[in-house]
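Good morning N.,

You mentioned wanting to compare the apo and holo forms, so I went ahead and generated the holo version with thiamine diphosphate. This is what I fed in:
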Amino acid sequence: MQIKSGRAGNKDARKMIECSEAIAEATALCKPAVVATYPITPQTHIVEMLAKMHSEGRVNSEIINVESEHSAMSACIGAEACGVRTFTASSSQGIALMSEMLFIASGMRLPIVMAVANRALSAPINIWNDHSDTMAQRDAGWLQFYCENAQEAYDSIIQAYKISEQKDIMLPSMVCVDGFTLSHLWEPVKMLSQADVDSFLPVYNPLYKLDSEIPVTMGALAYPNTYMHFKKQQQDAMLNAVEVIKKTNLEFGKRFSRIYGNGMIETYKIEDAKEAIVAMGSVCSTARIVIDRLRQKGRKIGLIKIRAFRPFPNEELKKIAGKIEKIAVIDRAISLGNSGPLFIEIKATLPKSHINNFIVGLGGRDISENIIESIVKKIGQKQEIEWVF
Amino acid sequence: MNGYSKMKRIKKLGQAKKETKKIREEKLEEFEGFVSGHNACAGCGAAIAMRHIARVAGRNSIISIATGCMEVVSTSYPLTAWKLPLIHSAFENAAATASGIDAALRHLNKKTNVIAIAGDGGTFDIGFQALSGAIERNQNFLFICYDNEAYMNTGIQRSGSTPRFTETTTSPYGRVLHGKLEWKKQMPFIVAAHGCYSATASIAFLSDFHAKIKKALAIPGPKFISVLAPCTIGWKIQNSDAIEISRLAVQTGIFPLYEVENGTVKLNFDIKSRPVSEYLKRQGRFEHLNDREIREVQKKVDEIYGRIKNLSNLQIKIF
Ligand SMILES: Cc1ncc(C[n+]2csc(CCOP(=O)(O)OP(=O)(O)O)c2C)c(N)n1
Ligand code: SF4
Ligand SMILES: [Mg+2]
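and this is what came out, ligand included:
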């Protein structure tokens, strides 16, 4: 949902804030017991802000300045296993380095929340935005939310804790914002109070934890006769998450009057649309502008924003795709040897639709309104996958 | 024997009996945190070390264990050999996971021992960064390395701890190369250089091992113990040999028992009295060593032992 414009001083007063700071502020309201920090551009502002708040006594989390992202995730795992809330943030190479631990966090059913400022992967080394880092971790068993603006990032952090920590989910979440494009963007953000968040987000109290009073073994060795059951339970939890994401989004909307579609996807001018752009993250805002302009010229086009990439919004897409004849999927990542990862999944969900894939914005290449317009011109073309430079 | 001394003797005997009874009762009450039923090979030295770590640490402890033999043999779902809360997450991160536990406990205001356990691979090699980082951050935890001098869980491959000339599956004995080429990393000193308590221990010197665990747990901040853990299959020794080989390792000076505390070295037992050959010849992994190679090992051991002894005598602060 677009933020309603408001004047400073009215009851909708917003704070002009950098997205990274908004994420840090939201995290502080969730009161994680342990925050693991490790620097990597463009994520660093998030943990720097938390460290600053900590030094000023505004958050009483234990901050661990670890020596690598692998250890950041390991420390979150160790702490979360003790039954407390944790947070970390990373990007790109950091996500790649902690990949091993991402699978373990999810397999051990530890609802850690991590903010990701999406950035391209080396080589060549590049610090700017695309989605290759988190797309490469799509099978790690983490819920993945892609945010369009600072407000959504702020709200999604709070929602992510609530969703992840539900007893029938217990899976970690990534809240992704486009590196620089969004992470470093200053926007007006409507802030919540501690009382607001305390009444929305229950105290975290997991069933099992490392506690010398009731000793349990965590991270056991599973033989072929049990391993598959663990994975099935993880998958069931992922599927449970669909309804919980929707419910949480709705509840958040009712409480704080901000709602993001149905939680899984958000649509724009899709009701009578014959064509649709499918995208994730900050590019959706550019797409909205282009859609408005094209609509004025009579083109029946809309936007489908994928907010939750994991779990994937299969049913939600099927429900709305029926009337849409042509779809353009914008990917900010490439599964080398095939096509854009978002496209691969959309095509599998909507086998009957005509879908074109556009690979754009890799390594921070700007996605201007012109680029979106040129993509729209190619909707329905024969060539299935096209790189737009 | 006159009547007086006989009385005295009987009295003494009575006292001794009482003492034994007391000790026995205490033993019965003693907590076992690593219990039978695990899948370690018969005669595994590391499993003996686990039992003593758990016993001395006691109930109020949380273990973070690295992937490796001890984790694999003790946590076959749905069974566990641990009566202590334990977490295993990966191979290289026992210290990082322990850091998270330490932070959480601090937040919860709980005073519980945090013990990270890893093999030599999970300590000297792949786990080294996480260990060094956790020590530098002054995390309150005890790191215990059970040193069986190779990657045993994956089938006896050489590690940074494997001694020179050892035959492993990745440093095999051949016509040209006689086992591993490099010397063992001096890990307890490398750790000590961080400025924390660092000690070696042996399953053949249990009271010393117990005392070191107790002492370490009482020190705030990071501390490190490396315990030699003979591996029956990897070292190619008899199932009944682990304790004896451990004792020989100390008596030959190959694995001296020492502590580095406050930057000062203390040799706990200056009992180097046997040639290294007595230790080497008991183990199949050194079967191929010729006299020249044994002499080379002897020279190296003399040199390192001599240095430790000198430092211990001089009592100078080296770190
Ligand atoms: C990242 C990673 N690399 C490799 C392995 C495979 N692996 C599992 S246990 C192990 C050897 C462990 O050696 P050590 O730490 O000495 O313990 P030991 O098995 O000797 O008790 C290896 C190489 C792994 N689990 N994870
Ligand atoms: S292989 Fe060696 S270390 Fe592993 S369980 Fe067997 S004896 Fe113990
Ligand atoms: Mg080993």
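Chain A has two domains: 14-256, 265-387.

Happy to go through it together on a call whenever suits you.

Best,
F.
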